[in-house]
């Protein structure tokens, strides 16, 4: 399976609509990939809190419309990163969209762990409540997480219990904590014996320089590909069977004792 992570530069001098159209064109260029992944909140910028309310949309709003057509034209599964969703009751959510090659919305995930402590996303947005997995053709199940979620291993255990073999993490990760980004991505891969596809943004928005360095990690924790700091498309071939082989050769997940989906004896 060929996966392309699109590390989009989010800059303040580009309008949201211009970026939508530019990114849609980039997605169309990915014909030949099986899965394309975009970063967190790339239309508006993950730290552009003052724009969240004005740019909020439904899951099938203008961002979906732009990139769903592109996914269909390219014939790819598209993890479209995330958008600022406005729910029917007015609550805002940081919501990821997964789009099938038909252009149909296949799944959504509302970010569970909101960043900002007592500011920004943490107070402006509602929290998701449900882990989400998405089965793809070719026997690969995606587990969905977003940015700050990467610091909470219990979410990833839950995704593995639901069958996840590749953990997809779109992000708007700041440059000043880039080492954490790489370390945590590798840790989630090793402890869950899963692929991690972590796709961040480049550029600077709302005064926050972005880390870039999108990364694909294999189920043994080896870095299969890593981007630089600027806008870049990172493409890598992943083997869905490698997860099963890793878990068979080194069956650590069978020795879990806390938080098991179904407790067992040795």
TrEMBL record:
GO terms for molecular function: hydrolase activity. Keywords: Hydrolase. Transmembrane segments: none annotated. Residues 1-240 form the CN hydrolase domain. Belongs to the carbon-nitrogen hydrolase superfamily. NIT1/NIT2 family. This is Carbon-nitrogen family hydrolase. It comes from Streptomyces sanyensis.
């Amino acid at each position: 399976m060929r996966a392309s992570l699109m590390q989009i530069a989010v800059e303040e001098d580009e309008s949201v609509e211009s970026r939508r159209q530019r990114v849609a064109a980039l997605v169309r260029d990915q014909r030949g990939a099986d899965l394309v992944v975009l970063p967190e909140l790339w239309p508006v910028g993950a730290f552009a809190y003052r724009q969240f309310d004005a740019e909020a949309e439904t899951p099938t709003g203008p961002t979906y419309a732009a990139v769903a057509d592109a996914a269909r034209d390219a014939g790819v599964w598209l993890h479209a990163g995330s958008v600022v969703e406005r729910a029917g009751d007015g609550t805002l959510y940081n919501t990821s969209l997964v789009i099938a090659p038909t252009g149909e919305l296949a799944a959504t995930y509302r970010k569970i762990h909101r960043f900002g402590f007592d500011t920004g996303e943490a107070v402006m947005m509602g929290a998701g409540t449900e882990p989400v997995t998405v089965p793809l053709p070719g026997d690969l199940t995606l587990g969905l997480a977003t940015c700050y979620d990467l610091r909470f291993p219990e979410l990833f255990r839950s995704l593995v219990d639901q069958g996840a073999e590749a953990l997809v993490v779109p992000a708007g990760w700041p440059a000043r904590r880039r080492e954490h980004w790489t370390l945590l991505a590798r840790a989630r891969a090793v402890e869950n014996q899963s692929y991690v596809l972590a796709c961040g943004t480049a550029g600077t928005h709302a005064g926050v320089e972005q880390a870039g360095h999108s990364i694909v990690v294999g189920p043994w924790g080896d870095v299969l590909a890593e981007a630089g700091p600027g806008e870049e498309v990172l493409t890598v071939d992943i083997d869905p069977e490698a997860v099963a082989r890793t878990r068979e050769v080194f069956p650590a997940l069978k020795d879990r004792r806390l938080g098991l989906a179904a407790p067992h004896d040795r």
